[in-house]
Amino acid sequence: MTGRAGAVTWALLLGAAGASAQVRETQRLAACRQVLEDVANMPEGIPRDLLNKAECVAVVPGVKKAALGIGGRFGKGAVTCRKDGGRGPWGPPSMIEVGGASLGLQIGGQSADYVFLIMNQKGIDHLLRSRFTLGADASVAAGPKGRSAEAATDLQLHAEILTYSRTRGLFAGVSLEGAVVKQDRSANMQVYGEAVDARDLLLKPDRRVPPAAREFVDLLRELSPRGQGSW
Predict the structure, then answer these.
(1) At the N or C end, where does the chain have fewer CB atoms within 10 A?
(2) What is the 3-state composition of the chain as percent helix, strand, coil, each rounded to the nearest 5?
(3) CA distance 110 to 130
C-alpha cells in the first residue's frame, strides 16, 4: 500500500469512527429522553412541583456492572440546566459519566436508570468541576416521589442533589453516596462538533441546543416550562 493510499484509508477509517461516535451519543441522548418520559408517566414518579424547583436535571440510562471492580457500576448520560438563574428555559446538555462501587450495592445485579435533580447553585458548582463525589463533595439524598413533594424530610430539603433509580420498572428515591460524576468531554466533542466547556453549555444564555439533544430538552421544556427558584 502506497503512502497516499494508506493516508486515504486512515482518513476513511477515522471518518467512519467519528460518525459511529456521533451516532452513539445521539442514541445516548435519545435514551435519556425515553427514561425521562417513562418516569414522568408514572403515577408515583418525580413530583412535578419538585421538578419545577430543580435547577438542573441529569439522566443516566442503563447503568450496568463495570468490567473491573467488585460491585462497581458505570454509566453515561447527560445533564441540562435552566437558564436565567434557574428560572428560565432548559438549555443545551453537557454529557456526563457516573461510576462507583456504591452503585452496585444499591441495585444488586440489575441494570438501572438514574435521574438526578440538582436543586441549587451549590449543586451546579459541582457540575462545573471535572469530577465530584456524591455525599463527599455534594450533599445528596434519595428523592421523594409521588404527586407532591410535601412529604420531603429535612435531609431531602437541604440536599444539593436528589437521586432516583428505576430498576425492572420500579422507580424510587435511592441514596447514591460515593458515586463519582465526571464530565464526558469526548462525548461533548461528538455532540457539538467542537471542544466545549460545561460552564458554557450549562450557564451561558446564547448556547443553542444541538439537533441530537432537541427531543430530550424539548421534553423537559414541556414537563416544566419555567423554574420556580431554589428548593
Answers:
(1) N
(2) 40, 25, 35
(3) 28
pTM for the full predicted model: 0.83
pLDDT at 2: 55
- Contact (CB, 8 A) for 102 and 180: no
Per-domain residue ranges of the chain: 3-223
Q: Any idea what DSSP says for residue 119?
A: -
Which range scores top for mean pLDDT: 43-47, 64-68, 106-110? 43-47
Enumerate residues 6+ apart whose C-beta is below 8 A from 186. Answer: 21
Measure CA of the first residue to CA of the last residue in the chain; give whole Å.
63
The per-residue pLDDT for 93 is 97
Q: What is the mean pLDDT of residues 215-230?
A: 86
The proportion of the chain whose per-residue pLDDT surpasses 70, expressed as a percent, equals 77
| Rg of the chain, C-alpha, whole Å | 18
In degrees, to the nearest 5, what angle opens at C-alpha 174 toward C-alphas 52 and 131? 80
Q: Cβ distance 213 to 31 under 8 Å?
A: no
pLDDT of residue 23: 87
What amino acid occupies position 65?
K
Q: All 3 cell numbers of residue 149? A: 413533594
**What would the pLDDT profile of 187-200 be if each residue is shown by its tens digit?**
999 999 999 999 99
d(CA 100, CA 181): 9
